Amino acid sequence: MQTTFPRLLLDHAAQRPGDAAMREKEYGIWQAISWADLAVMVAHLACGLHQAGLRQHNHMVVIGANRPRLYATMLAVQALGAVPIALYQDAAAQECVFPINNADVAFAFAEDQEQVDKLLEIRDQCPQMSRLYFDDPRGLRNYDEPGLQSLDDLIAEGKNFVAQNPGFFKAAVDAVKPDDVASLFFTSGTTGNPKGVVHTHDTLLNRARAGAEFDKLTNKEDVLAYLPPAWIGQNIFSYAQWLSCGYVVNCPEDAATVSIDLKEIGPTYYFAPPRVFEGLLTSVMIRMEDAGALKRKMFHYFMSVAKRVGPTLMDGKTVGLADRVLYALGNFMVYGPLRNNLGFSRVRVAYTAGEAIGPDLFSFYRSIGVNLKQLYGSTETAVFVCLQPDHEARADTVGVPCKGVEIKVADNGEILVKSPGLLKGYFKNPEATAEVLTADGWYHTSDAGFLDAHGHLKIIDRVKDVGRIKGGANDGAMFAPKYVENKLKFFQHIKEVVAYGDGREKVCVMINIDFDAVGNWAERRNLPYAGYTDLAQKPEVYQLIKECVEQVNADLSVDTLLAGSQVSRFLVLHKELDADDGELTRTNKVRRGFIAEKYDVLIDALYGGKTSQYIETQVKFEDGRTGSVSATLRIDDTKTFVPVKAAA
Amino acid sequence: MATKQIGDIILDVKNISLGFGGVKALTDISFDVREHEVRAIIGPNGAGKSSMLNCINGVYRPQEGAITFKGKTFSHMDSYQVASLGIGRTFQNLALFKGMSVIDNIMTGRNLKIKSNLFMQALRIGPAQREEELHREFVEHIIDFLEIQAHRKTPVGQLPYGLQKRVDLGRALAMEPQLLLLDEPMAGMNVEEKQDMSRFVLDVNEEFGTTIVLIEHDMGVVMDISDRVVVLDYGKKIGDGTPEEVRNNEEVISAYLGTGH
């Protein structure tokens, strides 16, 4: 049954008016909004926006953190047949110019003063942006910019309009068709301008339902909305599936309170990128190191039991009686309290995606009884392509194709997808659309991978990044940079890695240490350091990182495909790679080409055989000021291993 | 941007002199503070800035002069009287209860507003309980205002210095002061913390209309956020006016930069 977002809202409001639709923590208390109240708010907002001139097929930008009124605004826009575009709330002002002009946006919703200031800053460049609404009036009292208005005023105007035109809202909602455009998602793109991915009500809701059926989601779920609303995953988990299943979405009080709010809510359905799971694990491990000897011993003992028994239990297999008893005891004494502390007590289904997850990290969560699984998808596929079934979760695959999805591997190793959730195209960009969406209906993911013997999809790298070693001992060997980077990133002391090797005779990497983990490691060894740059260049830290690299080399040497991708030389960078400096995308993926250009002296030094190199780098602070960091970086050689031709 | 409405004189300090034995801390100081304005007191170390604040909120008794607050004239102020008149203050060296949570610390600022007695509070008798809830709600608004939600239940002693300063401000705000005295609110802070604090001070001034008298060393901050500035040197007033006027005042320049002999 095809439907639309606003129609789903009205259905819930009619069928279960008093049930909570959303909760928001304010003034220390979780405040619920019922479906009925939400529907009324959306009606008022929609009428207010209509009166202000928002029409069918117009676009409206929303920018801010997860707040009920942000989602209500999106629903109101969709109720008018118009299209909401969520932008990343941490994007710099200049990054907002392209989407706003590309989609010819005249209406905008901004959460607070920070976002209003951002949009006002670029107003000269976006002259068509005439209406600007804000949710939180704090600090905006003295602004008298034309077209700037509070959301409260808009709602009040809408209320008057409803009184005069009682039938308008319902008629507007009925006029919206499932095949109408529902949202544009601007993808952060590693090169060039971002592209607006066009999705209809049906593409998003179809995938939302497919995912919900796969995991048997009900209206009893609790979800914490803490990832940026501009990201399609957030849209699926806290918007499309929210309306489709009718569960409760909880908005945290503040970005800084997310971990406290997570504990209080205890979500049943949870998504986080691998780095969040990694951060949680690191914090647990650091706190355990500081715990008393008895607690520490107990923790390590039961974690070893969990490591042995937990994943097997999670896969639905049986284990011996003695192990079962031990695990139950561990569950009572360690795993239960630990899950509670992490806010995972009630988690029934947890997903991670976006990046490869380390095998140790993955099995840690599964071993303590968190049903963590992986999924595969992208903005263009409305997320759900592959999902791991409950008892078949593994660290190195991303699951089986879910309902409605067809998968094919092209000759060059690229994965092609056919699904009811595919994008309708890139906005005003037919060339880019033609590149990814061929006439026969296949979407080209640009990921290289294959389906394994069990029908699970395994991803190696981006197709365009898979390269060849040229010259030297491994001439012609396959080089998959992300595969190498991920293997290194699985070590807790390494935060970010950039690997080079395509068209070169050997593989060299630049590494970012994890400041928390390495800082803690250094303190335990009474190793003094003055800051990030100083710590990164300590010989002891180089030794630590070198051991990680050599272990990865040993692992790679038994890989039939990628034995030639072993790392020959490395250096530790003097500053953290940062999206504000353009080195990472907004979704925190390394921009390899950009980094190679920016740090070309380092690349030359790595391949030129130097043992150290001086570098000075401009950095941009959050408030827009710039400064510079300089250091002399050491470059180390590492041991590589003779490839072992193991049977595949 | 629209400008805020600066009202009538709310605090008038006339010919105040204060001495400790032979040491003259303040000599014949007069200045006024208007409603809704941000008034800064600046001066080199030992100029008498803190002494001036201490006279206003009743910690010191000046030997001469008078202070008029909201039309009532006093030859000296008493601390408890000052608080009930609606004058709040923060301290240069933080006087928080380190072992108590952020909420409890700010709650102490509500003390004067609580009407139920100790007995009723201890037994949580109906009206006392309801009253506590109301005050707690007020405290939550302050926590939201100062953006310290993540630290609600953290003992204050565990917070970094910049946040402790914010809690100190929160406690002063809890008594809903009409006049807020800030003793070096940005001392010891880094640039980012100073920017945050400046924003909070301006927000307090704009959102609640609170009149603010502040002592500050950072000239950039003073010139940016104050409406008028008083300059003290060796216990004497050597300048008074808008930041622009004070900046161009010869005496002020020589007090700060020294004079050629």
Give a verbal description of the structure.
The complex is a heterodimer of chains A (648) and B (261). With 648 residues, chain A is an alpha/beta fold. Among the domains of chain A are: 190 residues, Rossmann fold, CATH 3.40.50.980; 172 residues, ANL, C-terminal domain (GMP Synthetase, Chain A, domain 3), CATH 3.30.300.30. Chain A is built from 21 helices and 28 strands. Chain A has a five-stranded parallel sheet with strand order 4-3-5-6-7, with helices on both faces. Chain A has a five-stranded mixed sheet with strand order 12-13-14-15-16, with helices on one face. In chain A, helix 1 runs antiparallel to helix 2. The longest helix of chain A is centred in the middle third of the chain and has 22 residues. The model of chain A has no long low-confidence stretch (mean pLDDT 92). Chain B contains ten helices and ten strands. Helix content of chain B is 38%, strand content 25%. Chain B is α/β, with parallel strands linked by helices and 261 residues long. In chain B, a hairpin with a 2-residue loop joins strand 1 and strand 2. In chain B, the strands form two sheets. In chain B, strands 6-7-8-3-9-10 form a six-stranded mixed sheet, with helices on both faces. In chain B, strands 2-1-4-5 form a four-stranded antiparallel sheet, covered by helices on one side. Chain B folds into two domains: 171 residues, Rossmann fold (3-Layer(aba) Sandwich); 80 residues, no CATH class. The N and C termini of chain B lie far apart (46 Å). The longest helix of chain B is centred in the middle third of the chain and has 20 residues. The mean pLDDT of chain B is 88. At the A-B interface, loops of A face helix 5 and helix 7 of B.
